[in-house]
Each structure stands twice: as structure tokens, then as C-alpha cells.
Write a structure and sequence with these properties.
Largest sheet: 8 strands, mixed
CATH topology: BirA Bifunctional Protein, domain 2
Strand content: 25-35%
Helix content: 10-25%
Shape: globular
Distance between the termini: 22 Å
Number of strands: 11
Mean pLDDT: 92
Number of domains: 1
Structural class: alpha+beta
Order of helices and strands: EEHEEEEEHHEEEEH
Low-confidence stretches: none
Number of helices: 4
């Protein structure tokens, strides 16, 4: 197992006695070391390795997926740009956004990437429903939306049947950097967050609630 991205803290949700799901709350983390550790864990894991879910926040950073086009970046300013290995276009991470990375053995779980995307989207929709927020997905653009504004982005990489990367839910953050890009490659896409919808929970508290919906869908 690679070194933890940071001290952080963690708890374990037991799926069964042999393959528990390790849940790690890691706090604020620089993007690139966490990305490197996701790659390392996925590269070195075996059929007996535990699945892991990491919940954290990042300092300001734009990440560009494998299909990212330069025209979707208007002006990055002083925010770093990082070319990464997930699918999709460009998005923004920053303080006040809940990021959830899913390091899962999909072969062992018995489903593929499309089903994992569906599980992530539905878990977010159910979470927002708990806050009395009507949310929905879009067939043409993975993610979760409220009143035509994007509140959560999704992006994954699958290697040897195992996933990494995951989802980002806007909780209580500065949304201005989204105006410096076309979020997920969509010009003029509106972006929203929980705090603008009357929810004032901290990201870790939102993460705990999200796990209630997500874990049963990604566990045996």
C-alpha cells in the first residue's frame, strides 16, 4: 500500500471480513501528490487489496482530462493547470468543495464504468434529496445538476478493471474560477453549490452523509 496522501484520519467500513472498504478523510491536500498516490495504489494493488474511498479538499487547481481542449480555458490566472489521466475536459477544484476518490476493483464488484457513474450520480441525487434539493443527471453530460446549474462533476480512470479519480461536489466555495473556464467543456454552463441552496454543512459532514448512499452501491 502506498504512503497516505497526508496524516489525515480514517475509519473502516467493513464490507466483509476479507475485503473491507477503507474510508479516509484526508482534509486539505495538494492535488498532484494525491493523484500520484491514486495511481500507485491502483498500479500495485492485487486481487486481495481492499477498496478505498478518499474524501478531501484541494487548494485551487484546474485539472484537464484526457480530452481537454485549450479553447475551454479562458484565463487560468495564477491557478495551476494540471494535465491528468481521467476522462473529460477541464474542471476546477478548490477549498469548500468535497472531492471523493473511488479506488475500487470493478471486476470484483461485477460492474463496469457506466454503472459506477450511475451509482455516483444517483448517490449525489439522493444526498441532495435529503436536503430537499431536486437534482438530476444529464445523458449528454455526466454530473449532477440543480435548476440547470452544475453542482457536481464526475471523472474516472479505469486501469486493469480498477477505478480511481471520482467526483467533486460544490459545498461552500469561491465559484469565480469556474468563469475562467468552460466547465467540463460546456460554454456558459452555470455552476452552483450547496451553500447557495441554503445548506451550510461543512464538506466533511456532507461527505459522511454521502457515504450513507454511496457505500451500499459500491460494496459487495
Amino acid at each position: 500500500m502506498p504512503t497516505d496522501p497526508s496524516p489525515g484520519y480514517h475509519s473502516t467500513f467493513t464490507r466483509d471480513s476479507s475485503t473491507p472498504v477503507e474510508i479516509r478523510f484526508l482534509g486539505m491536500q495538494e492535488y498532484e501528490p494525491v493523484w500520484s498516490n491514486m495511481q500507485a495504489y491502483t498500479r500495485t494493488r492485487t486481487a486481495d487489496s481492499r477498496d478505498e474511498i478518499w474524501l478531501l479538499q484541494h487548494p485551487p487547481v484546474f485539472t484537464l482530462g484526457l480530452n481537454a481542449k485549450s479553447e475551454h480555458i479562458h484565463d487560468p490566472g495564477n491557478i495551476p493547470l494540471v494535465q491528468i489521466d481521467r476522462g473529460g475536459q477541464v474542471t476546477y477544484h478548490g477549498p469548500g468543495q468535497l472531492v471523493v476518490y473511488l479506488l475500487l476493483d470493478l471486476s470484483r464488484l461485477g460492474f463496469g464504468v457506466r454503472q459506477l457513474v450511475d451509482h455516483m450520480e444517483q448517490s449525489l441525487i439522493d444526498l441532495l434529496g435529503e436536503y430537499n434539493i431536486d437534482a438530476y443527471g444529464r445523458c449528454d453530460a455526466p454530473g449532477v445538476y440543480v435548476n440547470k446549474a452544475k453542482i457536481a462533476a464526475l471523472g474516472l480512470r479505469i486501469r486493469h478493471g480498477c477505478s480511481y479519480h471520482g467526483l467533486a461536489l460544490n459545498v461552500d466555495m469561491d465559484l469565480a474560477p469556474f468563469k475562467q473556464i468552460n466547465p467540463c467543456g460546456f460554454p456558459d454552463l452555470a455552476v452552483t453549490q450547496l451553500s447557495d441552496l441554503g445548506v451550510h454543512d461543512e464538506p466533511d459532514a456532507v461527505g459522511q452523509k454521502l457515504l450513507h448512499y454511496l457505500l451500499p452501491r459500491v460494496s459487495l
